[in-house]
Amino acid sequence: MHKRNSILKLTAIAVFSALVITYCSIGRSANAFSAGAPNGRTGAPALGAFPSELTCVGCHSSFVLNSGPGVLSISGLPATYTANQEVTITISLNQADRAKFGFEATMLDDLGRRAGDLTATDTANTQVINGTGNFSGRQYITHTAAGNVPNGTNQNTWTFKWKAPAQNVGRVTLYVSGNAANGNGNNAADYIYVTNASSQAAVPPLPQVAAVSAASFGGTLTSESIAALFGMNLANNNASATTLPLPTTLGGVAVKVKDNLGTERDAGLFFAGKGQINYLMPANTAAGLATVTVLRDGTAIASGNVPVDTVAPALFSANSNGAGIAAAVLVRIKANGDRTFETISQFDQAQNRQVATPIDLGAETDQLILVLFGTGLRANTALSTTTCQIGGTSAEVLFTGAVPGFAGLDQVNVRIPRSLAGRGNVNVALTIATKAANTVSINVR
User: Fold this and answer.
1) Which residues pair with 108 in a beta bridge?
2) Nearest 5 degrees, angle CA 302-CA 306-CA 309?
3) Of 201, 224, 252, which residue is a domain's last?
4) 308, 330, 349: which is the final residue of a domain?
């Protein structure tokens, strides 16, 4: 009985040994794999419905995975890819005192599916094989019999092409295994390595919007200036702010401004519509090129760049087009100190627009102060650098600064020269720190 049990044990050991030999010999010994590795040996992890792949350590088990002095590397895979993009990829395996080098690679998305197409461009040294069993549907590229011979000092390299998927599948990863073999004809004393590299789907550029001053429609803005964005399908419906401080979201729309120093801030919104958004450039936005991004329901839908300066004077016009009659009021100061406020424009129904109301200079003792409304000039701290020409005549600038209680709105107070009497329509040209505002006009009787 004891002898029979011993025979059974020996038989079981023999069968187990035979299975191991079969597993690591029929297409699994060093010599058998010299013509290419079997599929499913890249060490790719379990992804989606796919189980994890084996590595060659199962048979070449003398050393722990990635424990040798060699280096397995990937080059040529871009950080981002576009649909159907073709790139050349090179796999390199370096280790001293090795007689043979082999590899296998596969490109997968995050669900474990084949991602794009692998093509053997050097068919003498590489070949493409299809996955089977659990890895059916995957594609692999591996060495050939000629491709396992070192092609340099202590190294081998393999080059092939990868064509990206025809549509965005998110991140894709190239999983690679390599064998630095001693060429002794068996599985012993070979070093196995695995590595991987990923590429993200390139984000398509956002539709562009034009970011300008809401007063002049000029291209330079400042911190706390009133700005406008023009684009397509920016909002689902029109929405306007009704409170101060301004909301940062209107109808699901938001605007973010990233300044030249990389700081991103939310912009206050005056109005959000399908084709236009009026907003307030955030306080402390640094000078330089800023990026303005429109978000709808939390998703970025459009973007644009705009230069930001410390001062960028812009004047509002009565017809909201940055030209023609100024958006302004006239302050008349009598000799006794009495003050009256007068309009300088009125709406003409026939023309469907604002037209000039002639300014009567009145008595010689009257002082007439033109209060111009604008934006982008509140940071001006020196009237000595501020000039105004009305009808080509120098006009004294009395004040520049913010209008209290109005977000982003600035004003300029200018004394109207009495020498303009009878001139009719005259241009108003304002310059602050050598920066010219858009030209508006008034009419002087």
Assistant:
1) 114, 173
2) 150
3) 201
4) 308
